[in-house]
Amino acid sequence: MMKFMTLSNKNKLIALATCAVLISGCSDDDDDPMIVQEDAPAPVVMQTFDVTVTNLSANQPLSPVFIATHGADQSLWMAGAPASVAIEKLAEGGDSSDLTAISSLTHTVNGNGPIMPGMSETLTLSINEADVASISLATMLVNTNDAFAGVNNYDLTTMAVDDSSMMTLWVYDAGTEANSEAKGSMPGPADGGEGYNSVRDDVDFIHVHPGVISMYDGLADSVLTPSHRFDNPAISVKITRAQ
C-alpha cells in the first residue's frame, strides 16, 4: 500500500531542514572577527592620607579646618597678593563654603567643628592615585578680625606609605579687615561679633600677621585680653600617608 505524506508532516520536514542549514552556517561567536573582546578596566588604586591639625595657641579657637587636594599648579592664596573672596570669607568668618565650591579642587573635606587651644583633629582623605598631586589647608583664628593659617600647595606625590611630614604654620593677615579688635567686629567667643563683611578697609594684600594688641597693651577699644595673643607659629600640621 502506498503511503502518502500529509501536508502537515511535509511542512515539519521542511522546517527541520531549514533550521539545520541555518545552524550549520553559523560560526562560534568567539571566532567571529566582527566581535571585539574588550579588556577589563584597570583597578582603581587609592591613596589615603591622614592630616592632623593641632592648635598651639593659648586662647584662639580655630574654625573648622578646610582641606583640599588639587593640581600642582594651583594655590589657594599668595602672600603679597589680594585675598580671594573665598579666603576673605574664611579669614573673617571661618566660612569655607566658597573654598569648597571651587571646581578645580579634586577632593575636599571639612573639620567636624572648632579646634580649641591645645587640641587636635585628624581628618582622612582617600584619593584616586591618578588625582594625587598637592594638598592645601586653611583655618581661621576666630578671636581676630581676619587672621588665618594654612598649608598652601604641599606636594604629596613623593610620599610613600607610612611617610610623615610635620610642619608648623605661620599666621597670616588677610588684609581685608582692619585689626581694630573692636566689639562686634570678630566672630569668636571673645566677642561674638560679625564675620564676613564685603567692605575691605585694610591694606588688601595677604601678609604675616603682626599679632593682636589687646586692651591691656594700649588699644582702648579692643575687647581682647593678653590670653588672646599668639606667637608664630601658632598651628602644627602632620600629614601621613596611611595607604
TrEMBL record:
UniProt cross-references to InterPro entries, sorted A to Z: Spondin_N, Spondin_N_sf
Protein name: Spondin domain-containing protein
Limits of the Spondin domain: 62-178
UniProt-listed Gene3D superfamilies: F-spondin domain (2.60.40.2130)
Pfam families assigned to the protein according to its UniProt record, in alphabetical order: Spond_N
Superkingdom of the source species: Bacteria
